[in-house]
Amino acid sequence: MTMNDTKKKKRPIKKRHSSSSKNRTKFRIIGLLVVCMLAIVFAVLAWNHYQTLQAQTANRLDAIPSGSDGTFTQASPDVPLYVLIVGIDNKDTKQANFIGVAAVNKDKKHIDFIMLPDNTKIEGRKQKGAQELQDVYAEGGLSLTRAVVEDIFHIPIPYYAAFTSDSFTKMIDMSGGLPMYVEKNMYHADDNGITDINLFQGYQKLDGAEALGYMRAIDSDGYLSRTQRQERFVKVFYTDREQHFGITNMLFMYRFWNNVDSNIAAKEMAKLAFAFRSVPADDISFYILPGELSRSSAEGNDNSSDYWTFDPVEVQKIIGTTNNAISTPPDPETKDKDK
Questions:
Q1: pTM
Q2: What is the DSSP letter of 163?
Q3: Domains, the chain, ordered by start
Q4: Rounded to an integer, what distance in angstroms lies between the CA atom of residue 186 and that of residue 164?
Q5: Does position 9 have pLDDT exceeding 70, yes or no?
């Protein structure tokens, strides 16, 4: 047998081997394409599921409440941190004469501050009849006050800060006083005839005791007027602290906050003060609980009480602006039509 005959017999075997190799390569390519397609399909499904969960979280406050893990952190940029702020009178009954809710959005560097008049009408609680909001604290303390305010806004309010007369006075004194314009003369004497509020109209620097008198004073214009004045005080105080360096405000808040009854740690408030170092007061929205003044008579006799009756629909509009549920905010200033 010649060499040529041997080569002729081996050629068909080489051709079959080459064809089988090509088939295997083709199957590998098809298999890889199928795996890639499946991976893409699974990735798209996973992304859609993630987007759905994100939408549900943004649209439902109770899905993952901000601060639910016990820290002062937001669950979503659209869900702020709600803080109940209460000022407590030093009377024996310990009424609350300053009540507000701050919606703090650290991610967007914005705060919505909502003040509630002391005489806000609360009714339907255990057949007690109508009550003023300021009396709720005397009955059940901070926990009951928070529960009632949560019912008004229909949101969970996980954080609180309660100021006593002493802690408020100390805050102003530690800040070096507060320069501001006092709108009118203010005078008040306690039950023993001792003068505890004595302010004159005009521009002046208030120390802690004088600032406390400014916040407590109430006149013939009633509770709504005092609430408007308290709101103005908060804005003026923020504007005054804005003149300081961020590191200064951070240290000030850390030193002072230990005097406040709060479930927010001093270091968290110090971080917040530093984070808002470049945020002007004009970027903070101030509101008064929407409503109107109404009078309630006691069973036909001459005794009557003026209540601030809130509007539930308008209240929800304001809450909607705090979490982007409503894009256009209502008028930040509530006017007293009955004044």
A1: 0.74
A2: E
A3: 81-322 (3.40.630.190)
A4: 21
A5: no
